[in-house]
Amino acid sequence: MIRIGQGYDVHRLVEGRRLRLCGVEVAHTLGLDGHSDADVAIHALCDALLGALALGDIGKHFPDTSSDYEGIDSRLLLGRCMELIRSRGYDIGNVDVTIIAQRPKLAPYIPQMREELARVMQTETDRISVKATTTERLGFEGRCEGISSMAVALLVKRQ
Ligand code: MG
Phi then psi for 44, rounded to 5 degrees? Predict the structure, then answer.
């Protein structure tokens, strides 16, 4: 039995915040704003994982009105999503994450991002794809007002 889910998230770029994507610190003059560490790529991935099992979304499980999640490292949220999935008898088939950002150039960080997600998700790196694209300067990502991310996840029921 296989299940598929998709996720999408957006965060605003602001001054005075660190930029963390897929759990990796990225050098940039701006960072993403949010209640948590605003790791937009992990948030999209969490929503894909939860969506695959119709478990709602990240806002339901980790509400941004709760002080518990203020400034939280999104890798902890991803770890909890993995616990939920495994507790229901599923493992990762594969996931594919796309980060949409005009700047900075993310290509040098992609290998480390895949390794970090695989480590947190306790799965193999070859099951984890991370890609980055620009929007050719179009839209909010193109104007460097924010970064968005999309993710899909395929889950496989354990035998
Ligand atoms: Mg978010």
Answer: -65, -40
pLDDT digits (tens, 9 = 90+) for 3-23: 999 999 999 999 999 999 999
- Whether pTM > 0.85 for this model: the answer is yes
Q: Give 20 Cα–ligand 1 centroid separation in angstroms.
A: 12
The per-residue pLDDT for 48 is 98
- Bridge partners, residue 131, by sequence: 98
Going along the chain from its start, the domains and CATH numbers come out as 2-157 (3.30.1330.50)
Report the alpha-carbon distance of residue 130 to residue 100 in Å, rounded.
11
User: How much is the pLDDT for 64?
Assistant: 85
* 159 CA → ligand 1 middle, Å: 33
Q: What stretches of the chain show up as alpha helix (H) in DSSP?
A: 40-52, 58-61, 74-87, 110-121, 139-142
Gap from CA of 16 to ligand 1 centroid (Å): 18
Helices (H) and strands (E) in the chain, counts: 5, 7
Instruction: Give the Å distance between the CA of 38 and the centre of ligand 1.
Output: 6
